[in-house]
Amino acid sequence: MDWIQLFLEQYALFCLIGVVVGVLSGLLGIGGGIVLVPMLHAILMAKGFSGDMAFHVALATSMACIVFTSLSSIRAHHKNRNIVWPYVWAMVPMAFLGSLLATLVAIHLDAFYLTLFFATFILFAAIQLLLDRKPAPHKVPGKVEISLVSLLIGGVSALVSIGGGTLTVPYLAMRNVSVKQAIGTSAVLGFPIALASTVSYLQDAMRQPVHAPDTFGLLYLPAILLVTPLSVLFAPAGVALTKRLPVKVLKRVFAVFLMGVGIKLLWSQLA
């Protein structure tokens, strides 16, 4: 029975996180990193990882999980016809490049600055969700604009380890895309962003001769093995909930949660 107790103490929380990440991925069009990173960071700190190592591992592991979660979310959104494929093909190349380049920076950036950037970003995301403003629609963007925006989305997403939905959804909403289609399209864009970032982390891991316990480079293997399958399983449930639940209310509840996480992270770095 010892292995059961060990599982409940050490890994049951990862299973719960996988469910939450999957549902939010499908429901709000986010990759789940905005929830996964602070939770992983707290767990890793409790396990004895240094503050610098814990945050880098949380970022890398989150991106690896998003690769698989986004695929499940994409399938469900495609089935519901929520994806605007012309936008996908226009945005993917530069979003992939932005993520790839930003990850190379994030690997070597001090965790203090990464934490400040992440905390500031999720506070911005929380305020955006609380305000829930509906911007006036604009015309279809030109190639230069959509390339630059996609590069920015990919870069910022890699630095804070998210699928990009927090940036992609409001941008597409300004471009005459319905909220449901913006969420679906954002889910697709999250895959190349997460894939590019994960490839960079894997390359970095293969260059390291020694790895911390349960890790491969900056990837925390127990979290990937437990969070990923459950997030994949529950992402379609989140997509289904977009038809049944008051998304506005859920956004506000989620925003309050994000504000608490952001303030806690800022306090831990600046206190």
From TrEMBL:
Keywords: Cell membrane, Membrane, Transmembrane, Transmembrane helix. GO terms for cellular component: plasma membrane. Coiled coil: none annotated. Its main location: membrane. Pfam families: TauE (PF01925). It is a multi-pass membrane protein. It is found in: Cell membrane; Membrane. The keyword NAD does not apply. The chain crosses the membrane at residues 12-41, 53-71, 83-105, 111-131, 143-162, 182-203, 215-237, 249-267. Belongs to the 4-toluene sulfonate uptake permease (TSUP) (TC 2.A.102) family. This is Probable membrane transporter protein. It comes from Methylophilus rhizosphaerae.
